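Fig. S4 source data, part A: sequence.
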Amino acid sequence: MTPTAHMIGGTISVRGLRVRRGGREILRGIDLDIATGGITALIGPNGCGKSTLLKTIARVLTPSTGQIALDGAALDRLGSRNVARRLALLPQSPILPEGMRVRDLVAQGRHPYRSLLRQWSKGDDAAIARAMEDAGVSDLAERPLASLSGGQRQRCWIAMTLAQETGILLLDEPTTYLDLAVQIEIMRLLTRLAAEGRTILVVLHELNLAAAFASRIVMMKDGMVAADGTAPEAITEACLDSVFGLDAHVISDPETGRPVCLPRIEARR
């Protein structure tokens, strides 16, 4: 698939971001710059603010203080359609529409381009076809979503975000509850999309999956950034102990040089 101009790239800038929910401060002054292209993985223990950060960047949540910019434009000054044409969000565990076919779900990604003055077009059909082909679900187009496996459904949701034709993709735990082989298929798909120039920000729970595929790791703890860098820079024994309370070996993959986390069977004395 050859991406069109508006599907390539996209930068995110976060400054002094704080978010309060339910009387508790979830994000506590996040500063983060994400350049065009590549996969940035947000990792950290449960409740550290990963999903909150993703939703705030997507403007699902409103920050208490701080600024977010997309391609240098202040997020709070952009119209909803403008934002939807710059970034696409795949939330964690999206609700499965009852009775919907795959093609109909993917077509939902074209909503930001429709209006009273612009109805359905051949361009929309082409975008849907490209998205399904890229996500590997073209052969499932007429199937009901309810009849698909978990991995197939996740590919369909990703196809819907691709049909939105944005340069930035935000994905909240897209591999959760999937078999390991399917998790790897999803991450390989994201790697191909990043290689085409898209900017991908993804929340992951599995450390070794993040280490194997992400070009950058942002490790969070207690609503703040605890480590930020390449996988070898961020995933260290000291960081895992400090952030996760995890006693583990970190070894280097002999083929890729990327870190592999191996929890110690017995704690060190």
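Fig. S4 source data, part B ends here. The chain has a mean pLDDT of 92.
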